[in-house]
Design a protein that fits this description.
Elements: H1 2-10, H2 14-19, H3 34-45, H4 49-53, H5 71-74, H6 99-106, H7 114-124, H8 145-151, H9 156-160, H10 177-187, H11 193-196
Bound molecules: heme C (5 copies).
């Protein structure tokens, strides 16, 4: 099966790859139901749009966040990204910091500011701050932070920009299919459809 995926990976002809029937690699990945398959096939029918969507978008604007957190300010105290962001147990997701981590400082620092009061309320209720996600790929795409950071040893900045210099996060790096494939070609990583999609 590994061999088959490698073989498909070498093909550049999309149609040839699509004819390969799915093999049972899904146990390695989050369970994807039949609905995902249907959605994917609909997306496939619209695949002529891929090219258009990969055009660089106009300058992105910031999504409003529930608490105005600044990476630039906090980088003075916490240099390592992984001081705050840990890879989830399954390796797919990079977690947001637990509120208790913030409160190690903010129980005393700026405790009277409205933003920190709001933060302290979430922490007291043991509720996660509802951060609005900026970088996101659709469900039919497989993306693992563990593969890209721990295994491929890529810096966060390559895919997220120089956040130590940013007050506010905007999506300044593309997560389009073309952006993924460009780097895969550059680094010799697989580019067959089934690398990132289970149903093609
Ligand atoms: C290592 C200590 C430390 C940690 C951990 C920390 N902060 Fe801060 N934070 C600071 C300092 C210092 C300031 C600047 C205070 C000042 O302006 O005097 C600050 C400022 C802020 C402010 C601006 C407050 C205002 O009204 O000016 C917010 C909001 C904030 N932090 C949120 C967070 C959140 C959310 C977390 C957890 C993800 C966090 N901080 C973790 C030290 C920390
Ligand atoms: C003090 C804790 C802290 C540190 C250190 C920190 N972050 Fe964050 N990060 C946060 C919080 C809180 C958010 C959610 C608020 C926001 O989007 O600004 C966040 C959001 C993000 C996001 C946006 C994710 C999304 O799509 O919603 C990225 C990307 C990110 N951080 C990368 C980094 C990188 C890269 C570094 C190291 C240069 C770093 N972070 C260091 C606390 C931290
Ligand atoms: C190869 C590119 C790449 C690298 C390297 C990378 N990220 Fe991401 N990051 C992404 C993509 C793509 C998403 C959207 C993932 C999704 O929707 O499932 C994302 C999403 C996130 C999120 C939102 C939560 C999530 O996982 O969906 C955070 C937080 C984040 N990244 C932080 C980091 C930090 C911190 C590092 C370095 C330790 C890092 N990323 C390295 C591409 C990357
Ligand atoms: C900056 C370079 C870079 C970017 C951008 C990037 N990747 Fe990768 N990716 C790699 C490298 C290098 C590997 C090989 C990791 C290894 O096995 O050591 C990899 C491996 C993978 C794998 C595992 C392949 C396998 O079968 O072993 C998947 C799935 C994947 N990437 C999906 C994505 C998706 C989806 C995106 C875009 C959202 C993306 N990647 C963006 C560099 C990148
Ligand atoms: C390295 C990862 C990667 C590889 C390899 C890859 N894709 Fe994708 N694909 C993506 C990502 C990421 C998206 C979602 C882009 C976005 O956010 O709209 C996507 C989206 C799509 C879509 C939906 C586009 C739309 O119109 O919304 C189709 C169809 C698709 N891919 C087909 C393919 C086919 C066919 C192949 C093989 C020739 C392939 N993909 C190879 C990462 C990949």
């Amino acid at each position: 099966m590994k061999f088959l995926r490698k073989f498909v990976g070498r093909g550049t002809d999309a149609l040839r790859s699509i004819k390969i029937s799915p093999v049972g690699s899904s146990h390695l990945r989050p369970a994807l139901g039949i609905s995902t398959l249907v959605i994917f096939l609909v997306a496939l029918a619209a695949s002529s749009k891929v090219r258009a969507q990969n055009k660089p978008s106009a300058s992105p604007s910031a999504k409003p966040q529930p608490i105005p957190f600044s990476h630039k300010l906090h980088a003075q105290f916490l240099r390592e990204c992984q001081d705050c962001h840990k890879i989830s147990g399954d390796g797919w997701t990079m977690e947001y910091p637990p509120e208790g981590k913030c409160m190690t400082c903010h129980a005393t620092i700026k405790a009277d500011s409205p933003a920190i009061r709001k933060l302290a309320n979430y922490a007291a209720r043991k509720e996660p701050v509802p951060w609005v996600q900026v970088y996101e790929v659709p469900d039919y795409v497989y993306f693992s932070h563990r593969t890209h950071t721990t295994k491929a040893k890529l810096d966060c900045e390559i895919c997220h920009g120089p956040l130590r210099e940013r007050e506010v996060i905007v999506k300044e790096k593309s997560t389009s299919m073309q952006a993924c494939i460009d780097c895969h070609k550059l680094k010799g990583a697989p580019t067959g459809c089934r690398t990132c999609h289970d149903t093609v």
